[in-house]
Amino acid sequence: MDLFTHVLVAYLVTFGIVGFKPGYLAAGALAGGLPDADALFFPLARRFPVLRHHGITHSVFGVSVVAGAGALLAPLLAPGSPLVYLLVMEVGGLCHIAQDGFTHFSVPPLLPFSDRRLELDADRAINFVTMGVSIVSFYILLGVERDRLPFAIYLTTVYVLMAFFAAYFAIRLAGRLAIGRKLRALGEFDVVAPTTNPFAWLVLSERDANGVHRTTWGRYVFGRGLVAGPFTAEGLLTGPPAGRAPSGEAEALAWSYPLARSASGVLDSTYHFGEAKPEPGGGWTAVWYSLEFTFLGRAAGVRVRFPPDGGPATVHRAFYRPSVRIG
Q1: What is the per-residue pLDDT across 48-88, written as a single tens digit (0 to 9) for each?
Q2: pTM for the structure as a whole
Q3: Could you tell me the residue ranges of all domains in the chain?
Q4: Using CA atoms, how far apart are residues 10 and 31, in angstroms rounded to an integer?
Q5: Tens-place pLDDT, residues 204-234
Q6: Long-range CB contact pairs, 154-162, < 8 A, 24+
Q7: Which of 8, 115, 240, 286 could form a disulfide with 252 if both were Cys (CB 3.0 to 4.6 A apart)?
Q8: Using N-to-C axis directions, what is the helix angle for 60-77 and 82-102, rounded to 10°?
Q9: How does DSSP classify residue 118?
């Protein structure tokens, strides 16, 4: 989840616990965002892996340490009960862990005692729908409504946001459980990847064998089943031959894959697939897309162009629009 959604959800949960108590609300919201402060530990993470992003700060232990420190310091800044500050900051931090574990970006809630991961694959790590709702909500709550409109309007806004996120998470979780039960009946798929649309999912499998990477994937929509696919793309795991242009789509995909992987770490860290097409003047263009970094119909990817004379391929990273809808 993005930082704005982490903070807003923690704010809403804190409101549900203590009501309109500004000091406690601020502490709970702050605790909801603090686990991502581990980005500041980046220079130390190589030497101390426990400090990596989604490391110790995304564990019950790390959240409890922060909540304990907050319970001691917060009353010095805003009058209140240390026990209540401990409660709201603990809950705010746990909300952060739960939201990240809800996505395909796993967290280790039991560190430092266990590195067992929590990953439900029910939503994307960055979903622009919830991010947009959260940003607009903060603008309304802290800008438009604060000290300007009747308190009843503020309360209505808070309750509407509570209902929205409760429904959103319920729909996502129910969908993930439902598609998990149907996965084997759909084909050779063994992975479920969420899209921005809570009613649409990607199902896929990836295999490496005999120097070839093979991705098979399809698009699943609730109530309609598998609406696109299965599609298959294969790429070489080692460098392509030099001195001639690809003779067809299969060779363009296969040869472009190692070049695309070396140009972008996104392909190595996410599920992906490729498409290839001939150029009007000769030669071939292949694009490998991430199935998880998408926005408004486009996906983060790498385009590889093979000239017709067999010269060096050109490689470019950007957001490209696949011919098949993946969102």
Answers
A1: 777 787 888 999 999 999 999 999 999 999 999 999 999 99
A2: 0.82
A3: 3-177, 191-320
A4: 8
A5: 898 989 899 998 888 888 878 888 888 888 9
A6: 155/20, 158/12, 158/15, 161/8, 161/12, 161/133, 161/137, 162/12, 162/15, 162/16
A7: 286
A8: 140
A9: B
